[in-house]
Amino acid sequence: MSMSFGPKIIPRTNKVTLYHKTKLSLLPRPLLQNQTLPRKPTKQDSFYVMATSNDLESTRPLAQFAPTFLGDHQFSVPVNDYEIDAIEHEIESVMKPCVRDMLISFHTCTKDKIRLIHLLISLAISHYFENEIEEILNKAFGELEILTDNEDDLETISIMFEVFRLYGHKMPCDVFKRFKGEHDGKFKESVVGDVRGMLQLYQASYLKTKDEDIMEEARSFTRTHLAVTTTHPHLSKLIQHVLYIPRYRCIEIAVAREYISFYKEEEHHEEKLLKFAKLNFSYCQLHYIKKLKALTKWWKEIDLASKLPYTFRDRIAEYGLGMVGIYLEPRYSLARVICTLISMIMTVVDDTYGCIWWDIEAIEDLPSYVQIIFRNLWEIIQDIEREMSSLGRHCGVKPTIDEIKSLTKEGYLEIAKWARTGHVPSFEEYMEVGVVTAAMDDMTLYIFLGMEDCDEKIMYEWVASKPEFIHAFNVVLRLTNDIATFEEELKRGPGKWQMESTVT
């Protein structure tokens, strides 16, 4: 599970069906039409952080957000439940047993199994065989020295490096030294003739860790030569795509779509694998569209756009696509729905914070349009809590509520105060709040909420440990976001633009 391709090391507790047929009543939910709160939230269980009665409105000009450029195209795409069920049946009864036999066959050597795993990853069907793959790789990594000894094929070594690292095994990058000259320490010119090897090494280089200089050299070397390589048309097209956007910066299912077209043109492709990949893509596509239609219908029925006196980022389709980037597997349907719902409502909260300050005691003093936003957020959380309880998963809701409280109190509220008082924070002070508003801690919890086949205890203990990489992600996201929106924020007057004065 990752924003695109990433380490496949989320702890799982049990096998599940292809997708979770949730009873969640969010899509659509008639109660959301009600203009009154189902009950008044208490201070103990509410995540509200409401406005004080003396300072509800901001004097700063509000942002004007354009409508989603995606429109409602998803409603024009036909989705047939019978077709979805038929594809699922063929995947479960025919495709999976066939490929599983290929993976566990005693007649297939370890290197060939690793190559097969890499192909399954590229075709986006590896997620059907996680247990088998982990068993194979755990055993193979214990024999790594034997596997790599005297192996001089660049493509094979690069594939092993990529697969092992994807599944949490840190294969040393020293294995690539054999492809460098003994005297000058540069990659050998003979490598240039191995187009497939260079392509694989280039892609593997994106799995480097800090201070692995040889992988940085490999990326520069291969990129330079791949850019001017002339080869078979279908391979050239794949190279162009990879150089334009590396696969590890893309949504995995979208990369698979391109790879399916490439693999079809390979002279010795395995027809069964190609068929499986096509079936899986169609199944995922239909499933995503079906859920996106339901989400969009729910969002339109809430109709916040007509109830709020300002524009906000209306991006339900974009969030739905983003969740596919986090987890493409149909079995995480519930997780994608939950994450999309919370993310969309919190986006509206984010776009609203410049107008109000929040305080739990003042909920009844708020304008009606603000109460609508928080009522919907509250009802979503309540529905999620009921759904998770029905699945026997109780650990995730409270940490999520606490994180939302932290985001609003320590993030949005602080920036709103700065804007209203004219306070110019130091860069350090700004970044202390900025890493909170980047909200990757929150997003991590949203992501985990609906992953019903993963070990809750392990996941939430990990989140509570405040991993350094999430903090680093927050820093990068905060700065890149501010750079991208700087000019637009500057037009609106005092606000985020004040960061300029802290760094100039």
Automatic annotation (TrEMBL):
Question: Which GO terms are recorded in the biological process aspect for this UniProt protein?
Answer: diterpenoid biosynthetic process
Q: Which residues are in coiled coils?
A: none
Q: Which residues form the Terpene synthase metal-binding domain?
A: 300-493
Q: Which cofactor does it need?
A: Mn(2+)
Q: Which InterPro entries match?
A: Isoprenoid_synthase_dom_sf, Terpene_cyclase_plant_C1, Terpene_synth_N, Terpene_synth_N_sf, Terpene_synthase-like, Terpene_synthase_metal-bd, Terpenoid_cyclase/PrenylTrfase
The molecular function GO annotations come to: magnesium ion binding; terpene synthase activity
Transcription among keywords: no
Q: What is this protein called?
A: Terpene synthase metal-binding domain-containing protein
Organism per entry: Brassica oleracea var. oleracea
Organism classification:
Eukaryota, Viridiplantae, Streptophyta, Embryophyta, Tracheophyta
